[in-house]
Amino acid sequence: MTTAPLSLEHLIRPSNSTVGKPPVLFMFHGYGSNEEDLFSFAPELQAEFCVISVRAPYPMEPFGNAWYAINFDAENGKWSDDEQAKSSIEKIVNFIDEACKTYGLDTDRVTLLGFSQGTILSYAVGISYPEKVKNIIALSGYINENILTEGYADKTHQNLKVYASHGQVDQVIPPEWAQRAPGFLQNLGIEHIYEEFPVGHGVGPQNFYSFKKWLDDKI
After folding, report:
1. CA–CA distance from 130 to each of 56, 80, 125, 134 (Å)?
2. What is the distance between the alpha carbons of residues 212 and 195, in angstroms, rounded to a whole number?
């Protein structure tokens, strides 16, 4: 299937479903990467899903893309542009609507899969707009409460399900940050699984097969 000229650049693997509107799995890559990164998972994922891997909107030099700026300096340490992140949340929400309409996808069966910065955004979109998202696969990321939309806690989250995982020796995002997610999700009544694996900032085979199995009955 050729990609349509939508608001965000993307790659697409069509669903094999021939009845009704197929479920969709959107992929959101990490800082400095692109849409080809996570798309390597697509051939191994359930064929019922239409898989759409999205390129972040902010190009980096000399290559790669970001959902929001992260600056490093000796005085302030690591600093993230939360306002830019909020802008990307709205871009993602708009893109989900746009893609579902253009490609004829089931808006009631939307799954978000993120890695690192893409996970931070996936959490924010799903928690802020639970009416639009059925599942979140949150790999090597954490929940940034500062970028959630106002009034998110008043929304109904019981239909949202989360699979989260993290590397036990992740040197980019400390495991302690990811470990806060289960308590946060529980407070919102969100069904979730949290796992850790003996890896760094990445997704090992065991991790991949674990979230793929989790997806089996979430289509």
Report:
1. 21, 24, 8, 7
2. 13
Separation of alpha carbons 41 and 51, rounded Å: 10
One pLDDT digit (tens) per residue for the chain, 219 residues: 678 899 999 999 999 998 899 999 999 999 999 999 999 999 999 999 999 999 999 999 999 999 999 877 656 666 789 999 999 999 999 999 999 999 999 999 999 999 999 999 999 999 999 999 999 999 999 999 999 999 999 999 999 999 999 999 999 999 999 999 999 999 999 999 999 999 999 999 999 999 999 999 998
pTM of this structure = 0.96
What is the identity of the amino acid at 89?
I
Instruction: Tell me how far apart the alpha carbons of residues 104 and 5 are, in angstroms, rounded to a whole number.
Output: 15
Give the integer Cα–Cα distance in Å for 95 and 49.
17
Instruction: Classify 104 in phi/psi space as left (phi over 0), alpha (psi -120 to 50) or beta.
Output: left
